[in-house]
């Protein structure tokens, strides 16, 4: 369970490799639907290449800032990317986000 009652402490979690420059803490995986939730920690300068959302994606920025072609999103921002939306994600200074995917993404 993810509890933010006492604030968020990224060091309290066991991080695993996810993509180059990005670590994860898997929180929930429901197959075969593809529903998934994870904490993602981006190192400064880390990027996720352009991808399309097949289902909804919800991102809550917990620390730092995340950005894409539409803007920069500081801690406390909730993003909702609907099915069919596309973007490439990056974090200049590093960030931690809670990501919830309704379906896996498709890289373009």
TrEMBL record:
Q: Which residues form the signal peptide?
A: none
One Pfam family assigned to this protein is Cupin_7
InterPro entries under this entry? ChrR-like_cupin_dom (IPR025979), RmlC-like_jellyroll (IPR014710), RmlC_Cupin_sf (IPR011051)
* Name of the protein in its database record: Transcription negative regulator ChrR
Q: Where is the ChrR-like cupin domain?
A: 9-97
Species source reads Candidatus Macondimonas diazotrophica
């Amino acid at each position: 369970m993810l509890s933010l009652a006492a604030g968020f402490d990224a060091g309290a979690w066991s991080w695993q490799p996810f993509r180059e420059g990005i670590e994860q803490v898997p929180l929930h995986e429901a197959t075969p639907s593809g529903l998934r939730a994870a904490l993602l920690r981006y190192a400064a300068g880390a990027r996720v290449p352009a991808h399309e959302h097949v289902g909804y994606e919800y991102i809550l920025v917990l620390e730092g800032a995340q950005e894409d072609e539409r803007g920069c999103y500081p801690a406390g921002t909730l993003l909702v990317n609907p099915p069919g939306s596309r973007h490439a994600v990056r974090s200049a200074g590093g960030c931690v986000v809670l990501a919830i995917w309704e379906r896996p993404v498709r890289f373009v």
